[in-house]
Specification:
By secondary structure, the protein is an all-alpha fold. It is 48% helix and 0% strand. The termini are far apart.
Amino acid sequence: MHNTPKPPGVVPAALMPLDLPPLSDSAAVEVLDFLHELVFRFEAHYFGQIHRHYDQQRDIQSNPPSELPIDNDDVPF
């Protein structure tokens, strides 16, 4: 699987359960514990940025920008 950069706004394809390798019970728990710790540390480090983004998105949805006025002098045809 290649990790090619994607343009902003492009959502990568979902990881399907069939794509995951088989794991022992203990390995599955270790991976899960690692992922929980990773998410915990990620959220703690980027807390301000994450919440600022959600606040901005909520503000945009609550107050969508009005349509820009059309400048008839700049119409190409």
